[in-house]
Amino acid sequence: MLKRLRTPLLALVVVGGLTGTALATPSVPAAGFHPMLLSRATLDEPVRINAGDIRFRTKDAVDVTHQTITIDPRGSSGWHTHPGVVLITVKSGGVVRYHADCSSDTYEAGDAFTESGKHAGLVRNASATTPAVSFLTYITPVGAALRVDAPNPGCPSVN
């Protein structure tokens, strides 16, 4: 009986280990990309807020995380996705955000933008001399990684 249980149990442990590894994909920043965690806390219950033109709803508990990211001149975030919503404000310098369809948008100090979903993106500091600094607020499922590294979706001039 013990022998019959050992093989399925071993298979379950191996699959569980591999699944945990896949779900915990490390955030391997590209050269010149420096994230600094400021805080992370959990909103324990679903949120439903309607305040004028703003509606904010969650289906379950979520983590709220604050981070500062500095991108060196010519540095980039690397291609990545997010499991939740990210609100980004550019504090200084400027960045170019590339989308999975190879289009791009440029943001300067004082601009804001969002990221979310399963479509890969890359953020690059196009300056050759000035670092770019941004403040980020992540709203993610409890315990989720803040970002998941992704392959280049086929944009030949964006690495």
List keywords for this structure.
45% strand, five-stranded antiparallel sheet, Jelly Rolls, disordered N terminus, 1 helix, 159 residues, three-stranded antiparallel sheet
Catalogue the unreliable spans: 1-29
The CATH class is identified as Mainly Beta
Task: Please give the count of helices.
Answer: 1
N- to C-terminal distance: 54 Å
Structural class: mainly beta
Largest beta sheet, briefly? 5 strands, antiparallel
Any idea what the CATH superfamily is called? Jelly Rolls
Q: Average pLDDT across residues?
A: 85
Rounded radius of gyration (Å): 19 Å
Order of helices and strands: HEEEEEEEEEEEE
Q: Tell me the CATH topology.
A: Jelly Rolls
* CATH architectural grouping: Sandwich
Number of strands: 12
Sheet with the most strands: spatial strand order: 1-4-11-6-9
| Total count of domains | 1
Summarize the structure in short.
By secondary structure, the protein is mainly β. The protein is built from one helix and twelve strands.
Structure characterization notes:
The chain is mostly beta strands. It has a single domain (28-143), classed as Sandwich (Jelly Rolls), CATH 2.60.120. It is built from one helix and twelve strands, in the order H-E-E-E-E-E-E-E-E-E-E-E-E. The chain has one helix at residues 2-23; strands spanning 33-43, 48-51, 54-57, 62-71, 80-81, 85-92, 94-99, 104-108, 112-116, 121-124, 132-141, 148-149. The strands form four sheets. The protein has a five-stranded antiparallel beta sheet with strand order 1-4-11-6-9, with no helix packed on it. Strands 8-7-10 form a three-stranded antiparallel beta sheet, with no helix packed on it. It is globular. The N and C termini lie far apart (54 Å).
